[in-house]
């Protein structure tokens, strides 16, 4: 146990018993406990294996390279359609965690083996993401915007494209694009 992470488990939140059980399982697997992204994260030889996070409706183990796991129990969930690699195992009560303890440990040990083997996931390239018509129009109209956008890291480009594309109405897409043009021109990402 890492004392820097203890505060997360003493917040007395809705999922307290569940996340304490998950912590125990992760530590039983010999992983190193750290606090990353504001959540308890567990690594093997500095490689991220699993993270505990909570949501309104459930708490979950997030397996960083879950897409590479076999999943014989069919419990791995792709959080959203845009998540390429990580997979969640979701819980809505303590009993589920207790009943699945040996299965959860097996998944974690498999994830450790994935890291030992050095397996990687081929991520979708930025060029494979759809550029919304409204954004393409702006890029065509303003060469400086296109230059600035292409100068962003691939991850920042994808974040913008996903954010713009998620809006269902053209009006909303246009509004989002207008809002973020200054940040793109400054070379900043969506959340910078």
CA radius of gyration is 20 Å
Query: What can be said about the biggest beta sheet?
Result: 5 strands, antiparallel
- SSE order: HHEEEEEHHHHHH
Tell me the structural class.
alpha+beta
Beta strand %: 15-25%
Give the helix tally.
8
Instruction: Provide the CATH top-level class of the largest domain.
Output: Alpha Beta
> What is the total number of structural domains?
2
**Which parts are unreliable, with pLDDT below 50 for 5 consecutive residues or more?**
none
What strand line-up does the widest sheet have? Answer: 1-2-3-4-5
Number of DSSP-assigned strands: 5
CATH architecture assignment of the largest domain:
Alpha-Beta Complex
Tell the overall outline. elongated
The average pLDDT is 92
Tell me the CATH topology of the largest domain.
Answer: Aspartate Aminotransferase, domain 1
Gap between N and C termini: 32 Å
Percent helix, as a range, is 40-55%
Quick take:
The protein has helices at residues 6-9, 16-28, 94-99, 101-116, 133-141, 143-151, 154-166, 170-185, and strands spanning 32-36, 39-44, 47-54, 59-63, 87-91.
């Amino acid at each position: 146990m890492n004392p820097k992470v203890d505060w997360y488990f003493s917040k007395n939140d809705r999922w307290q018993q569940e996340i304490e059980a998950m912590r125990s399982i992760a530590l039983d697997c010999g992983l190193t406990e750290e606090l990353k992204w504001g959540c308890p994260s567990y690594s093997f030889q500095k490689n991220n294996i699993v993270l505990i996070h909570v949501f309104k409706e459930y708490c979950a183990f997030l397996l960083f390279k879950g897409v590479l796991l076999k999943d014989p129990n069919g419990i791995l969930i792709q959080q959203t359609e845009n998540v390429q690699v990580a997979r969640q195992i979701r819980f809505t009560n303590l009993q589920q965690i207790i009943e699945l303890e040996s299965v959860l440990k097996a998944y974690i040990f498999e994830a450790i083996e994935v890291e030992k083997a050095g397996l990687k996931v081929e991520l979708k390239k930025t060029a494979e993401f759809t550029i919304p018509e409204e954004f393409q129009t702006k890029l065509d109209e303003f060469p400086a915007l296109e230059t600035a956008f292409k100068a962003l890291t691939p991850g920042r480009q994808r974040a913008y494209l996903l954010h713009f594309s998620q809006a269902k109405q053209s009006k909303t897409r246009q509004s989002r694009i207008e809002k973020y043009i200054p940040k793109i021109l400054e070379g900043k990402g969506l959340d910078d």
